[in-house]
Design brief:
The structure holds two protein chains of two kinds. By secondary structure, chain A is mainly alpha-helical. Chain A contains six helices and two strands. Chain A has a two-stranded antiparallel sheet with strand order 1-2. In chain A, a hairpin with a 2-residue loop joins strand 1 and strand 2. The longest helix of chain B is centred in the last third of the chain and has 16 residues. Chain B is globular and about 40 Å long. By secondary structure, chain B is mainly α. In chain B, 42% of the residues are buried. The chains are: A mainly alpha, B mainly alpha. Chains A and B meet through helix 6 of A and helix 1 and helix 2 of B.
Chain lengths: 189, 118
Amino acid sequence: MCETLEVEKGYNPMGIRAIGANIAHKVASPFTRKSTSTNPFEHNSFQGKVFKGSVLTFADLFQKNTNTVKETSKLKMMSASVVSAVSNFGHKISQPIVNFARNVKAGFNNTIVAIKALPHKVNEIGKNVSQKISESLHLDKIHKEEAKDGVKVLSMREINTKASIADLKSTWIEENKLELAKKAPKEAA
Amino acid sequence: MNKKIKKIIETLGKHEDVESIAVLEELGTNSQDDEIRELTSQALVRKNIHEALKVVIINKGKGINDMSPVVAMSTINEILNLENKSEAIKILDDTINMHSDEEVRENARSVKSLLSLS
């Protein structure tokens, strides 16, 4: 009797533990998660329509991606190191330039002071240089050659309205002679 | 053309000394080089004084009477460009009325007619 009753009512001889286990198989627990996602909007429904997290535009904010966090932290570290390196580099470079500019400025000022202090010496140096240049180019001899025979041949710089008519005329005549001398070999050839 | 000679001609053209006209006539208008004659005639006209204009208007073979049409035309052009043409017109009138050479008189007449038209 007892056995039939147990069979009819579905009694399980294994006891309440077995019942609990069966119920756990048949009824889904409201506390069990369908997925491991941390996104609370991943599985939503409205009026029978089911939305997944990807549908909602803001849903991705809640998705936890450990790789991205790691990469971001790495990038931050790298950028920080690069910025510090660049700032140090700029500082190291700028200092010698500043020092160089200061040295140049100081040297220039010293030179000006020295020149102002010694004007006569500078003039003497200039005269000596011009004399040496004229000596090396034999300019003195050229002037002497021009003055020979009483005929003055003017240079291009000397040909102006301040020059005498006689000098201009003699220069023109000399230039005509030179032109004829240039043309003669061509005509002979 | 020789740059030095070109500068001498320009300088003599601007020179205040009247002797510069004689030098320009002697060395410039008698030159074999057309370019030198052309520049010399222009320099003489720019002086715009009786002695200088006379050289290029009444002398046969010089200025407006030059054998080279380029020299003659450039001289005429320079006369036409003068601001004060009174001295040039006076010399042209004298040449038309009194010059012995018919060709020179004819040239002077042509230049004067051009001046009246300009």
